Fold this sequence. Notes:
Elements: H1 2-22, H2 25-31, H3 46-52, E1 58-59, E2 62-66, E3 72-76, E4 79-82, E5 89-93, E6 96-100, E7 106-110, E8 113-117, E9 122-133, E10 138-147, E11 153-155, E12 159-163, E13 166-170, E14 172-176, E15 189-193, E16 197-200, H4 204-208
Organism: Paramylibacter kogurei
Keywords: Membrane, Transmembrane, Transmembrane helix
Transmembrane segments: 12-32
Amino acid sequence: xxxxxxxxxxxxxxxxxxxxxxxxxxxxxxxxxxxxxxxxxxxxxxxxxxxxxxxxxxxxxxxxxxxxxxxxxxxxxxxxxxxxxxxxxxxxxxxxxxxxxxxxxxxxxxxxxxxxxxxxxxxxxxxxxxxxxxxxxxxxxxxxxxxxxxxxxxxxxxxxxxxxxxxxxxxxxxxxxxxxxxxxxxxxxxxxxxxxxxxxxxxxxxxxx
Length: 209
């Protein structure tokens, strides 16, 4: 009986962790496009690119599209400020990313600030970073870094995640996909580190298991 209960908790925890992995969201929006997509206007419309070419601030930039895997997404922000006419860095104020998976899951990511580093093919979200899924899972942290080439993401700060089966707190978080080695992607590995605290909340369904 104890072994069965442990297995049930493992299954429940997997159901909790995997949707949070899917929240590797903001990076995945860029990852399944060609490598130069950011510089070529992935997150801006053609009209906004005219402003971008002058190195001026862009108000309410917005882009919608579909990833190579067929999932619809949108990226927007209150403001975007490139560092030059041919930018290597774009600062975002109140960035917001949303992706709808083919399985019907909606994932939304928001932050106070964001930076896209075109040269290094990376992005950073900072200040009240939130990640929410339509099936009831959410995660909060203060700093999240995405590597567009590898699909890996990490948060060196405290992470709090919760969902229907419980909650988890950790000193840091790392999501590993290594898309540079396996371009088609596979199951991401999510690592919670540093003083991990897990609170399992059994439901009637889980208890029956």
